[in-house]
Amino acid sequence: MKPALTWLIIIGAGIAVALTEVIVFRMFQPPDEFSAILGGLWLAAPYLVTAGFALLFRKRLAPLIVLLVAFLIAAGVGVSMFNSSANQQAIANHQVETAVQPGEDPNAGPGGMRKSGAEMGAAISSVFSIALAVILPPIQIAVVVIPTLIGFGVSALMRTLPK
Questions:
Q1: How far is it, in rounded angstroms, from Cα 72 to Cα 84?
Q2: Looking at residue 147, what is its pLDDT?
Q3: What is the pLDDT of residue 17?
Q4: Which of 63, 79, 87, 129 pairs as cysteine with 152 (C-beta 3.0–4.6 A)?
């Protein structure tokens, strides 16, 4: 049971890393390889911590179960939020491209108004996406680490109590 649960967590973490990286790098193109590696590691950090904890607690069932539940919550919310952000960014970019109709002046009149509004929406969406990519991974790490350590502590305490 424990090895299967450990591998389930590690494989799930790998899938979550792949989904997150594909979703985020669909929104943003890194300027160079070094930035892509650093950004990818930042986004993968919660899932790398999860896999590390799965290996660390591979011989204890209670922390593994808590880790699995915490991982499912963190990954489900995280991947969903990144996907929503990517979809909103794509919609905002499409609105910028289609704001000015053929024959309209993009710098004045109704076409200019629609274009400036669409560009403002795209900028706000981009700022939100960047903030999400910066803020969400540490929160995901906390969601995984804190309950797992509590589960480990409780299971270790239960072993030391007299029966």
A1: 18
A2: 95
A3: 93
A4: 63
Distances 152 to 69, 72, 83, 159, 162 between C-alpha atoms, Å: 14, 18, 32, 11, 18
Give the relative orientation of helices 109-160 and 33-56 as an angle to the nearest 10 degrees.
Answer: 30
Residue boundaries of the structural domains of the chain: 2-88+119-160
Structure tokens at 92: 């905002």
Q: Are 7 and 67 in contact (CB under 8 A)?
A: no
**CB under 8 Å, gap of 24 or more: what pairs does 8-12 form?**
8/68, 9/50, 9/51, 9/54, 9/64, 9/67, 9/68, 9/71, 10/51, 10/54, 10/55, 12/68, 12/71, 12/72, 12/75
Check: CB of residue 73 under 8 Å from CB of residue 25.
no
Residue with tokens 């390889």: 33
3-state helix, strand, coil in the chain (%, to 5): 85, 0, 15
pTM of the predicted protein model: 0.82
